Structures are given as structure tokens and as C-alpha cells.
Amino acid sequence: MGVSVEVLASGSRGNSTIVQSSSTRLLVDAGISCRETFKRMKAAGDDPHSLSAILITHEHADHVSGLLVLARKLKIPVFMTGTTHQAWSRALRDADGERPQLDRLEFFSSGHSFHIGDIAVMPFTIPHDAADPVGFTFRAEGMKVAIATDLGYMPASVRDQLRGCDLLVLESNHDLEMLRVGSYPWAVKQRVMSRVGHLSNSALAEFFSTDYDGHASYIVLAHLSEENNHPELARNAAEKALSGRRTLLHNRVLLAAQAEAMQPIRF
Ligand SMILES: [Zn+2]
Ligand SMILES: [Zn+2]
Q: What is the Å distance from ligand 1's center to 52 Cα?
């Protein structure tokens, strides 16, 4: 079977991705409802009850809105940092008056790798306006996969984590010009553009044309804004920056979508 990655949903209305090896299947973020997660998995021929664990990047609603119901239904462990857990449970308590209970909760710390089944997970800090946000790399069966969305810019510490990856899922959130002239209130525009906001097409392109090692077979552009981006703008910016390095076998650019799951990428 090998390693595969399937982005179930990506964008400000919900994020969720499956990373799996032959024997372990991880759900990274639970930002769409349990029902929708099950629906999208079943449509791809996957059994939701075969998931091994849920990992959470940060407590923003578009990454956790389905978490409580999914964890209760599947009875599998949920992994997040202690600080993210505090922020998440505080937000739910403030909304419902009750602290949420997760039966199987496991804490990790940014910068400290751990194993779930045969997958080695490395969480790393990303610059974003959440309590303790992380991206992840996953290693199994000789392959390396990285997921890094929701970051205001790409610091050297993140660039380092992205070396040697076979598959990159990276944020290409907005086109700067569309954001500037778009309908968002000024305060929201400032937040998105800030060092703890979201990565623009041009900031990602800058990474591709400077620091990127060109190693990946696939690059998935993710967390695209529906308001301030267009899939073709994101694709063009990435492909232009990658220009000489795209071959049949390397650096194929794919787009993650909000409304439907991507075809699984298999190695
Ligand atoms: Zn976020
Ligand atoms: Zn997000």
C-alpha cells in the first residue's frame, strides 16, 4: 500500500488531511464536521474507523470544529500540545459553559518527535496568531511528507523542516493585490498580511525560488482564500517560481480544495 496523503478539505471553512502508511492512518486536523469527514472518506473508499489517531495543528475553528464529535465516535487518541489544548478547551467552555472531555488525549511539544504506529511525527513551530501553532513532518517507509499552513511568513526554522520532502502541503493563501483591493475590513486585511497571519502566493513563490531544495515529487497548494485568491493565480505563481525544476517526476503542483477531497497521492 505504501505512504499516501489525501487532503479532505482545505481553506478557511475547514481543514483536514489524511496521512497514512501501510499500517497507520492519521487525521491531521478536524476542521470539517464528523459527518462530512466520514462522507468524504467513504467516497474515497476509506473506512473512517480505520483511523489510528487525530493530530491538531492549532485551536482555530477551521482546524478543530469537528474534533469533539469525531474523537467520541472513533474513540481514538487525539494529539496536540498542552497549550493548544488549554486554548481549545477554554474556547469551548466559554461557548458552552462546559469543559470538553477527550477520553484519549496525548500531548506533544514542538521540536520533539514521536511515533504513532510506524509513522515518525515531527511537530515544528509556525508563526501564526494561535496559542502554540505547529506544522508537521511525517516519515514512514523511506518517505517524508510535510504539512505547513497558517503561517504569516516562512522563517528559517520552517524552511529547514521542509528539506528532503517527497510531498509538501504548503499554504498559498492569498494574492496580495486581490487582498488589498478586496472587501475585507482593514483590520482583517492587516491580520492576514501580518507576520502571524497567512502566507501569500508571492511569499510561497519566494521560498520556491530561493531556499527550496527541489526534492518533492508533489507540491500541494493549500488553505487558498476563496475571497482573495484564485486557484490559477496560486498555481501560476508557484509554477513560475519552480520554472526550471518541474519535470514529469518532480515538483508537480496540485491544488487542495475546500468543497471536495483531493485524489489521494500515493507513493
Ligand atoms: Zn489558523
Ligand atoms: Zn486555518
A: 24
